[in-house]
Amino acid sequence: MKISPITRRTFTSAAALAAASLAAPALRAQNKLEKSKVSIAVGGKAAFYYLPLTIAEQLGYFKAEGLDVEISDFAGGARALQALVGGSADVVSGAYEHTINMQSKNQFIQSIVLMGRAPQIAMGVSTKALPNYRALSDLRGKKIGVSAPGSSTNMVANLVLSRAGIKASDVSFVGVGTSAGALAALRSGQIDAMSNTDPVMTMLEQKGEVKIISDTRTLKGTLDVFGGPMPAACFYTHGEFVQKNPNTCQALANAIVHGLKWLQTAGPSDIIKTVPEGYLLGDRALYLASFNKVREAIALDGIMSDEGPRTALKALTSFDPNIKAERIELAKTYTNEFARRAKDKFKA
User: Fold this and answer.
1) Topology of domain 121-226, per CATH?
2) How far is it, in rounded angstroms, from Cα 323 to Cα 318?
3) Above 70 in pLDDT, residue 2?
4) Model confidence band, residue 281 (pLDDT cutoffs 50, 70, 90)
5) Are 183 and 204 in contact (CB under 8 A)?
6) Distance (Å, rounded) from C-alpha 268 to C-alpha 119?
7) Coil, helix or strand for 35?
8) CATH class of the domain defined by 33-119+230-346
9) Which end of the chain is more exposed for a tag (fewer CB within 10 A), N or C?
10) What integer best gives the mean pLDDT of the chain?
């Protein structure tokens, strides 16, 4: 029997409606958050390293995804990681390389969305403490400031020093945070050099208080130091949390990618209006100069490149004998599943 065009159209519409009614409950169930209240640990929230987190928070992107986030700020990334391991945080906004470090200790944590595609960490020597500095060997026996021992600022310092044959035990690392405390530590002579993030390093650099000896605030500088793209800040959490809370992880990734999309077109005045006043460290012009320096280091769409984790593993094994490359399964250290969906949603 021949079906008339109208009947065929009606049949097709009815079939589509039936399919939609079957799919809708599943979709609603799929989008229901397993956990709407999420505690996030971060080490040095005022740093540009974590700017996408601040943007997502300040512009209400977490709330838009149905999330009630509580953000706890620690002195450095290593402390934030401790909060996750100790159970006082669900998720960490921290350096990707911690996922590799922890896997070497048989603890599986996973990155769910990338915020930074370069570490944004510069290492500088105090022009006051070491006015005659000539080479890395001059740092032997000196005090080097890092955000917190074991954090990514410490990792970069270790990597730079190792290339000159200097072991971590040949220097003293001092935790100084990532804001006013770091500035005070260098200016008062408590430390001789510092590995830290912006805006702190640009402020010291522009005032002639440090001589920069290693710089990963740009993609080119990162390539020079690491030999490839080096993933930086991300949201990471226990693999078990990802499996149990996929919709919550999706909501977290959505909020961050939404923030990354906003940052792509944000102007200086937009940034100043959005970040808390305390982040400016009393100097708006220098803060914006710092932002312009690190802007390209901010991730575009939250997706981890295939090469980035390999670069991170190579860097870590170059100075940490406890990390054996052949025992690390990089595929278990990150997932792009949530970032891809978020990218599609926000056209990032």
Assistant:
1) D-Maltodextrin-Binding Protein; domain 2 (3.40.190)
2) 9
3) no
4) confident
5) yes
6) 21
7) coil
8) alpha beta
9) N
10) 91
Helices and strands: H and E segment counts in the chain: 15, 10
pLDDT in tens, 98-153: 999 999 999 999 999 999 999 999 999 999 999 999 999 999 999 999 999 999 99
Q: Residue 115 in contact with residue 50, Cβ under 8 Å?
A: yes
- CA separation (Å) from 36 to 32, 59, 305, 308? 9, 18, 29, 31
Q: Where in the chain are the domains?
A: 33-119+230-346, 121-226
Retrieve residue 251's tokens.
């909501």
Residue 30: its pLDDT value, please? 60
Residue type, 238: H
pLDDT of residue 18: 39
72, two tokens:
């706890």
Q: What is the CA radius of gyration of the chain?
A: 23
Considering the entire predicted model, what is its pTM? Answer: 0.88
Query: Residue 71 corresponds to which tokens in the numbers above?
Result: 């953000």
CA angle, residues 34, 344, 77, in degrees to nearest 5: 60
Nearest CA-CA partner of 130 in 197, 206, 213: 213
232 φ, ψ to 5°?
Answer: -120, -115
Paired residues of 70 in beta bridges: 39
C-alpha distances out from residue 183 to 204, 274, 281, 285, Å = 7, 23, 10, 17
